[in-house]
Specification:
104 residues, mainly alpha, 4 helices
Length: 104
């Protein structure tokens, strides 16, 4: 079997035997929702560095990736929303990768 054929088979198996695509769509929807929540709670906080929805979207990606390059939220509710996002997003994403319902 040639490498391109193996890759195609791998992609087909992932798409057929895992909830990966559904989980990616769910992850994107939750990213947009949690970023909006973070923005709502953070935009009026003292010393806030997340002052636009674009900043919140960027924070959502940086926080989820655990790169540690995002500005930290300042308000208590924004920190709560952010913490829930980091845990929930990580569980969904990594759960979609390792979940396997078939013996293939």
């Amino acid at each position: 079997m040639t490498p391109p054929t193996r890759f195609k088979r791998f992609v087909r198996d992932v798409l057929t035997h895992t909830p990966f695509v559904k989980m990616v769509f769910l992850l994107i929807a939750l990213w947009v929702l949690f970023s909006a929540g973070l923005y709502v709670f953070e935009r009026e906080a003292d010393n806030a560095t997340i002052t636009t929805y674009g900043d919140a979207l960027y924070w959502g990606i940086a926080a989820f990736s655990t790169a540690g390059i995002a500005n930290a939220p300042q308000s208590g509710l924004a920190k709560l929303v952010g913490g829930i996002w980091i845990v929930l997003g990580s569980v969904l994403f990594f759960g979609a990768i390792v979940d396997r319902k078939s013996g293939v």
